[in-house]
């Protein structure tokens, strides 16, 4: 199995525990919890900032002593309603107390500027179409660079319809060369609807030094340390993924694969 494909460790509790050290890179961390009602967790942030994403379910959240009450709307991620999220800065703590079954993503990166704990979404997050034809997908931008809500983290959700491609045309963001490109590590947390489905993701570089095509199933995570990283879902299934990106600069600048850039040019013509 590819070292880039991370399978869930269990069916309940902390099913993903991806630190920069485990991933072999320097910025992105990603944990995922499947929690039952009343299964509370509390954590310190140390030198990292965190965005808590309630992928599914309702939970009472406290961050840096600030009580946000019971957050959450959708009980199934494929309802596609805007998520409820909370930003937590470094050198503080947070707690989550689920009031229903809950899927909680903990997205983290180094903190270079402290922000006050704040709720992100659902206000200000609107499901937006991107692409054309079978390249159409739908985006919930949680914390991209147009929102001044973090020092390092970039977080977004993508819903890919049955039989469609996503993160396509193939693109990369693996060079620290702003404004042409930014270096951003990235994780993809995948969900399928129905859950017995599957999709595919390819991670590859133009020089062929990395070229891996993976079959992704429900709750899998794919690491993207460099290279292009398109994915697709077959007819009959929908794909969701939660993207977490971080690097030395909180900007998303990428380049399409030169062989396939004509597709993007055609879509904007």
Strand and helix map with partners:
Blueprint: E1 5-6, E2 13-18, H1 20-23, E3 29-35, E4 41-44, E5 48-56, E6 59-63, E7 66-71, E8 84-88, E9 93-98, E10 102-110, E11 118-120, E12 128-130, E13 137-143, E14 154-160, E15 165-166, E16 171-172, E17 185-193, E18 199-204, E19 211-216, E20 221-224, E21 231-232, E22 238-246, E23 255-256, H2 261-267
Antiparallel strand pairs: 1-20, 2-3, 3-10, 4-9, 5-8, 5-10, 6-7, 6-9, 8-11, 12-13, 13-14, 14-22, 15-21, 16-23, 17-20, 17-22, 18-19, 18-21
List its salient traits.
mainly beta; seven-stranded antiparallel β-sheet; Jelly Rolls; 2 helices; six-stranded antiparallel β-sheet
Describe the structure.
The chain has a single domain (about 10-265), classed as Jelly Rolls. Strand 12 (about 130) and strand 13 (about 135-145) form a beta hairpin. It has two helices and 23 strands. The model has no long low-confidence stretch (mean pLDDT about 95). The protein has helices at about 20-25, 260-265, and strands spanning about 5, 15-20, 30-35, 40-45, 50-55, 60-65, 65-70, 85-90, 95-100, 100-110, 120, 130, 135-145, 155-160, 165, 170, 185-195, 200-205, 210-215, 220-225, 230, 240-245, 255. Helix content is about 5%, strand content about 45%. The chain starts with a strand and ends with a helix. It has a seven-stranded antiparallel sheet, with no helix packed on it. Strands 2-3-10-5-8-11 form a six-stranded antiparallel sheet. It has a four-stranded antiparallel sheet with strand order 4-9-6-7, with no helix packed on it. The chain has about 270 residues and is mostly beta strands. The radius of gyration is 18 Å and the shape is globular.
